Amino acid sequence: MINSSLKQLSVALAARKISSVELTQLYLDRIAQHNPALNAYITVNPEMSLAQAKAADARIAAGQADTLTGIPFAQKDIFCAKGWLTTCGSKMLHNFVSPYDAHVISQFNEAGAVNLGKTNMDEFAMGSSNETSYYGPVKNPWDTQRVPGGSSGGTAAAVAARLCAAATGTDTGGSIRQPAALCGISGLKPTYGVCSRYGMIAFASSLDQAGPMGRSAEDLALMMNVMAGYDERDSTSLQRAKEDYARDLNKPLTGLRIGLPKEFFAEGMGSDVAKAVEAAIAEYKKLGATVVEISLPNSKLSVPVYYVLAPAEASSNLSRFDGVRYGYRAPEYADLTDMYEKSRAQGFGAEVKRRIMIGTYVLSHGYYDAYYIKAQRIRRLIAQDFVEAFKQCDVIMGPTSPSTAFKLGEKGDDPVQMYLSDIYTIAVNLAGLPGMSIPCGFGDNNMPVGLQIIGNYFEEARMLNVAHQYQLATDWHSRAPQP
Ligand code: GLN
Question: What pTM value is reported for the model?
Fold first, then answer.
């Protein structure tokens, strides 16, 4: 059961081979057994999960089931979920029980899905290793000495270790794709605006996007059918006709033009990663695709641009955490200003403080033009590179991450090394494009390697088709770590 696809689970539930309560209990038992070693979940609440499962069983019995009714999903702890502790990985929100549902959560609820629990993450989604979480690091289920990636590392570890059927993530600079790559699962960051950000705790609003993480492209398509959609409560939510993201899964890939950015295949990529990615491209040629070399000349500036813009937006977004409206308040203080200062000093971790300081600096009078405006200009050039590239190809492929999962603590005191983990993913967020990562082999130390697929705006269905055809021809996505 734990290796079944979402489609298989849906069929089994409809045929009453298993009930939602039984399936939910199965995962709760696995969480109880394996989570102490992995730390993938911050919160599990069996009572609430089983109540949802019971309701799902009633809905199935009444013949009113949707595809995902009764299936247990984990939710990244960045999504507000009514009645659930919602921490965003921070001490600042250690006691915040959300009074409302994020749009993504209410979409899952409407579909009759079961919320299995809230997954661990880097504090306020800032990180690439899950080591910045107030709740402690997540361990990679393939090797518990290694990181799962970040910031959606709890989700990635939970999916890989079969501690949920599938789960949600968010991606501001790579946080769905990089942990998916490092844990050997599939993940999709949709086009900016496709999934509502309402109730998703904000990091960098012009970049943040929710997306599905699961074991196969087919599973991601079914989740996208639930997660995507217009929501008037998010002013950047896009008003588009509802689409079936699974509609093109079975199309053949004959004639597909794959763009390979020469900048991605230059120095910086580990040789083990290069080998696996090249083998994947060879497989695509067998499936009928052709390859063209393309160039993304400004992509080398994406990391520095991101580390001006994302902290700038974060410094503004995080100003709301002041110890008054919700969250952590310092126990002792002299006056109001002291209370703000102490609450923020004690409530935020080191990486979050670093970003707030950088953001405040680049937005301050006298530096705004030199840093913030300049970065915005380069952001436009980076997006323009993709417009040019997509004149020559249908999808772009390359590595998701320069290396496989590194050891816990390995990049702890070097933030710049950590930031470079997202060198291949960040440009996609800056451009607002959809991107995904699928498993394509194993590198040194037998750790999973991810293949990144970048599509043009709103081409999610095509990307899922491209990924699904590869997954029909290979079995990397069905490999699982030993428990
Ligand atoms: N690793 C990047 C950062 O630390 C991206 C994080 C994300 O996508 N949320 O900001």
Answer: 0.98
